[in-house]
Amino acid sequence: MGTDLRAYQTSLSEIVNLSGIGVHSGDSVSISMLPADPNTGIIFRRIMPDGTMHDFPAVVSQVGATDLCTMLGDPSKVHVSTIEHMMAAFSAIGLDNVIVEVDSHEVPIMDGSSRIFIDAIDEAGLTHFAAKRRYIRVKKTVRAEIGGSWAEFSPYEGTRFEVVIDFESAAIGRQEFKSEVDGDVFRNELSSARTFGFMKDVERLWASGHALGSSLDNSVVIGDDNAVINREGLRFADEFVRHKTLDAVGDLALAGAQFIGTFRSYRGGHRLNATVLKELLADRTAFEIVETPEPRERAYAREFVAIAAQAYAPWDV
Fold first, then answer.
1. Which residue positions form the known binding site for Zn(2+)?
2. Minimal CB count within 10 Å: which of 15, 60, 205, 311?
3. Is 105 in the active site?
């Protein structure tokens, strides 16, 4: 058998440059994704107007707010927000080490999904290192509840998402997405699902300084008649729950490593995703750090071997 490249850490083969609009600020934003050494992890680097730089490791302990998006840093000071769609792309495609330079306080929204990030990474290509990739294997069920919403991790030999949403709006209603999620599933079934919102909320969001860059080019918008007003319609009949699953993939990537287990949520969102992830990582009996061994004759890629947790603690909780 040949070497299983899924067992090894990656980075970009070359620099990726993208630009777009910040969905909340409405400002033009430029980003550069830079190749990084093994064990660097994902770092968002805010480039200030005076040229100074502030680095934010993409780990849940750095999350400063989860109101309308996931933010790293202090909301009242230096921060980088709306990272979840990019983080979902990194996690699903298996990009372990990268420095993302951002010249504004939010990652550009692009088309409201992860698709453009996936395409850009594919064009650049990945480099594999000799360093083994580590995973977080869930050993027991951990649950968090906020109001009538809940989320939990439970043991499972794979990476599975079971996401349920339930809106009063007739345009959405109750939708479910339940599947193992690997790179192929994410590309084909989740990556192009767009963020969404209601026209009735726009004036309130504008008044609070949010959604200034939101448009029909980057969001699915539901009108006052409970109908989707985008001319192209939906990309999937259940695009809403697919986008919620995309968000969960990105938010849970803030563990600092991919997880092995099942994630379930009911009426979840960024806040609940961050809460249950913190609950999992705060309980050292609930998980273990494992790595994928290089396949041997008669061995299989989904065989995992446990290593000491002290050797790798990317979450910094």
1. 85, 243, 247
2. 311
3. no
